[in-house]
Amino acid sequence: MKTEAIVDAIGDFLDADDWKYEYKGAKKLFAMGVSLHCRLQNTRLYIDVKEDAYLVYAISPISANSETTTELMRYLTRANYALINGNFELDLRDGEVRYKSYVNCDSLTDLPSAIIRDSIYVPCAMMNKYGDGIAAIALGYSDADTEIRKAENISDDDSQQGDD
């Protein structure tokens, strides 16, 4: 599937799903804001269309600083463990936190709306799920162990079972 067909399919999905977005044709980039139900409150969502694929990025409005980078790296590494669709990334140069989803369209003749929906909604859902922890750690209020237990609803008893 070629770039233009991918752009058309994504644009059709966003229009049908009533998204408010900006499309930057020269860059083949969709951009929009998304409200969240966590301390982050919102995320910027970018859909970057490539030659036979596209990437979806949900970017946190809160970044790590030099004092919180290591702890946030621990948290995101634990959050990434066992994720099926996408992953968190932490830019060690500037502390940016984002969730990335990748869709390979190379062998597709069309792009089903279910694939587009998942590629967009999963990054938003992950920012919602892990956003309180991102905010608490990036702002220096908590630590990775505490926040991963909260995000994944792990009790202290559950977290100690593997320590034997």
Helix content: 25-40%
Number of helices, counting only DSSP H or I runs of 4 residues or more: 5
Derived from helix and strand composition plus strand pairing, the structural class reads alpha+beta
Would you identify the regions where 5 or more consecutive residues have pLDDT less than 50? none
β-sheet strand percentage = 15-25%
Instruction: Output mean pLDDT.
Output: 94
What's the total count of β strands? Answer: 6
The succession of helices and strands, N to C, reads: HEEEEHEEHHH
User: Strands across the major sheet, in which order?
Assistant: 1-2-3-4-6-5
- Most strands sheet: 6 strands, antiparallel
From the N-terminal CA to the C-terminal CA, the straight-line distance is 51 Å
**What is the gyration radius calculated from CA atoms?**
17 Å
Overall 3D form: elongated
What are the key terms here?
164 residues, alpha+beta, six-stranded antiparallel β-sheet, 6 strands
Structural commentary:
The protein has 164 residues and is an alpha+beta fold. Helices cover 40% and strands 23% of the residues. The chain contains five helices and six strands; from the N terminus they run H-E-E-E-E-H-E-E-H-H-H. The protein has a six-stranded antiparallel sheet. Helix 3 packs antiparallel against helix 4 (144-151).
